Amino acid sequence: DIQMTQSPSSLSASVGDRVTITCRASQSISSYLNWYQQKPGKAPKLLIYAASSLQSGVPSRFSGSGSGTDFTLTISSLQTEDFATYYCQQSYNTLRITFGQGTRLEMK
Amino acid sequence: QLQLQESGPGLVKPSETLSVTCTVSGGSISSSSDYWGWIRQPPGKGLEWIGTMYYSGSTYYNPSLTSRVTISVDTSKNQFSLKLNSVTAADTALYYCARLGPGLAGWFDPWGQGTLVTVSS
């Protein structure tokens, strides 16, 4: 299995902050890395696919980067609606899709 | 636009079989570029991939669940279904269906709203 490890597991930040969440794969996954946002009581929503492509309709303050084993999700200027839990997911091993454990972004 | 909607029993007894159905609207489940997946989330925990299917009937299961899982498709109803047998309390979760694409190495989008299944006597 490819293990996906996110850091930090939780993060406190303020509106306007620049926030970075990291996802590390246990082996190289090229750019087969996707990011999701989940708000309480809601289904996950795709933010970034293929490591750095912004899903249609997602604000441009979200960006993704990385390849191989190390990836980042950056929110350039945090907004109130961005407080949520974020998950990374690898689709390199299509026979064993795995998610990171999640990063909970809370208001400071 | 494409929408997915799960439906399920809500409550299942231990050792019985959990059955959840996903109805796809606004698009065809027989799309050549799309796969369809099930993901679950125990209360307060993270996401776990259960399995993926293609409209032709090809299926791919999480090795940790493969002995208990069956995913099937009904193209005439634009639906696909999940069955998980011999359930225990550990199978209590929100069960989501989602499109996976383009291709097997794609991404999950969109998702259904999820259906909570509780395993309890």
Number of strands of chain A: 11
Terminus-to-terminus distance of chain A: 35 Å
| Secondary-structure-derived class of chain A | mainly beta
Low-confidence stretches of chain B: none
* Beta-strand content of chain A: over 45%
What does it look like?
The complex is a heterodimer of chains A (108) and B (121). Chain A has 108 residues and is mostly beta strands. Chain A has no helices and eleven strands. Chain A has strands at residues 4-7, 10-13, 19-25, 33-38, 45-49, 53-54, 62-67, 70-75, 85-90, 98-99, 103-107. In chain A, the strands form two sheets. In chain A, strands 2, 4, 5, 6, 9, 10 and 11 form a seven-stranded mixed beta sheet that branches. Chain A has a four-stranded antiparallel beta sheet with strand order 1-3-8-7, with no helix packed on it. The radius of gyration of chain A is 13 Å and the shape is globular. Chain A starts with a strand and ends with a strand. The mean pLDDT of chain A is 97. Chain B is globular and about 40 Å long. In chain B, the strands form two sheets. In chain B, strands 2, 4, 5, 6, 9, 10 and 11 form a seven-stranded mixed beta sheet that branches. The model of chain B has no long low-confidence stretch (mean pLDDT 96). Chain B contains no helices and eleven strands. By secondary structure, chain B is mainly β. The chains are: A mainly beta (108), B mainly beta (121).
Topology:
The complex is a heterodimer of chains A (108) and B (121).
Chain A: E1 4-7, E2 10-13, E3 19-25, E4 33-38, E5 45-49, E6 53-54, E7 62-67, E8 70-75, E9 85-90, E10 98-99, E11 103-107
Parallel strand pairs in A: 2-11
Antiparallel strand pairs in A: 1-3, 3-8, 4-5, 4-9, 5-6, 7-8, 9-10, 9-11
Chain B: E1 3-7, E2 11-12, E3 18-25, E4 35-41, E5 48-53, E6 59-61, E7 69-74, E8 79-84, E9 93-101, E10 107-111, E11 115-119
Parallel strand pairs in B: 2-11
Antiparallel strand pairs in B: 1-3, 3-8, 4-5, 4-9, 5-6, 7-8, 9-10, 9-11
